[in-house]
Amino acid sequence: MAVTTNIHVEGGDVTFERVQDCTAIAEHTQALHKEGRHGSTDMRHAASFPMVIVERYLNDKGISFQEFMAEAVHVKSMLADPALSAFRVWGGRV
Known about the structure:
two-stranded antiparallel ribbon; 4 helices; alpha+beta; 41% helix
């Protein structure tokens, strides 16, 4: 699953854009979901988000990865986002 990094220079600003075809990851998580492979009641496998999706969330929210990991509201927000439902393994409420 190749990740391409594009560099954009506009005036004095430089931005990096990482692009990945996440179809295979979405198909795999949906297969896990259909097979009922959600983990145990003690430890659920809720989702498998590709890093490019997490990076986009970080950029959109203007937060660091450390903030993302420290504050459960961010993970819950991604898990509740209907646009990311293809990456959900366990469909229950988090």
